[in-house]
């Protein structure tokens, strides 16, 4: 599949979606984008900038949601123009899709909305690549009819649809990742992405907000790359402890390059194996 001018897939080099969970300020968005663009050049990797203009699914009513759509899209457009990075952002309602599609290179359907038929259809009908995040309550096999729904709305059988694993609810305030899900989700025919930072989240784990365990991010990311994925999703922040959203599970920006370098090496080793051997290994894992 072609994505932002690059070939992506199970036999192509790993790509990265990264950025702060939510836009906090224009200055922070630009500084983070410039740092990510530097990493992309240094590692010769497709890196897609991600940030949200509105976090419509915050735990508490008084949690920070973002600058709003008009200001948020202005900032995101400036980040793209000044860094040269392609842009991914969320849409939460069908009414947002057309305006966001004028700015974004990729539209994202949040996990909690991944069964919203009208929203998926509106996003796919733009012709832009669409990243659908698997809901925390869905089994891997549930993504097959979800993707079929998306393709039914597309103008072509080869619609650019991405599928992201972000962990499955396990009791209260916890997520687990079954690495077999990555192989199972490849049966959709979509490039599969692993969200290493949201998988380390503890939803509602701090009462009025979610917690997380960012120390688990490298472990989960290495396991997913070894299992065979097309791309990796990681929220990153210059100072995660002061982040206005998802700080506990965000990866520190100044540590991203070192982690990505190790993951790129691992990805290259895994993808140097014959596909059948990679497939067998991922299923056994």
From TrEMBL:
Its EC number is 2.5.1.55. It is an enzyme of class 2 (transferase). It catalyses: D-arabinose 5-phosphate + phosphoenolpyruvate + H2O = 3-deoxy-alpha-D-manno-2-octulosonate-8-phosphate + phosphate. Pathway: Carbohydrate biosynthesis; 3-deoxy-D-manno-octulosonate biosynthesis; 3-deoxy-D-manno-octulosonate from D-ribulose 5-phosphate: step 2/3; Bacterial outer membrane biogenesis; lipopolysaccharide biosynthesis. Its main location: cytoplasm. InterPro entries: DAHP1/KDSA, KDO8P_synthase. Keywords: Cytoplasm, Lipopolysaccharide biosynthesis, Transferase. It is found in: Cytoplasm. Belongs to the KdsA family. This is 2-dehydro-3-deoxyphosphooctonate aldolase. It comes from Pacificimonas pallii.
């Amino acid at each position: 599949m072609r994505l932002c001018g690059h070939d992506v897939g199970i036999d192509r080099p790993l790509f990265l979606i990264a950025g702060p969970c939510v836009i906090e300020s224009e200055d922070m968005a630009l500084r983070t984008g410039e740092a990510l663009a530097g990493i992309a050049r240094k590692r010769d990797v497709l890196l897609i900038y991600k940030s949200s203009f509105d976090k419509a699914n915050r735990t508490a009513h008084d949690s920070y949601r973002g600058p709003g759509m008009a200001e948020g899209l202005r900032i995101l457009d400036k980040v793209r123009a000044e860094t040269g990075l392609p842009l991914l952002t969320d849409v939460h309602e069908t009414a947002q899709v057309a305006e966001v599609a004028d700015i974004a290179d990729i539209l994202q359907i949040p996990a909690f909305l991944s069964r919203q038929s009208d929203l998926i259809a509106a996003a796919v009908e733009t012709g832009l690549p669409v990243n659908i995040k698997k809901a925390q309550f869905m089994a891997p096999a549930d993504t097959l009819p979800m993707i079929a729904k998306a393709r039914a709305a597309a103008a072509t059988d080869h619609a650019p649809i991405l599928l992201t694993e972000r962990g499955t609810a396990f009791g209260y305030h916890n997520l687990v990742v079954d690495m077999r899900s990555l192989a199972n989700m490849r049966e959709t025919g979509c490039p599969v992405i692993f969200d290493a930072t949201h998988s380390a989240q503890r939803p509602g784990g701090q009462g009025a907000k979610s917690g997380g365990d960012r120390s688990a991010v490298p472990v989960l990311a290495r396991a997913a790359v070894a299992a065979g994925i097309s791309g990796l999703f990681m929220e990153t922040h210059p100072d995660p402890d002061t982040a206005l959203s998802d700080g506990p599970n965000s990866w520190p920006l100044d540590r991203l390059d070192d982690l990505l370098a190790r993951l790129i090496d691992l990805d290259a080793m895994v993808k140097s194996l014959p596909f059948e051997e990679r497939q067998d290994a991922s299923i056994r894992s």
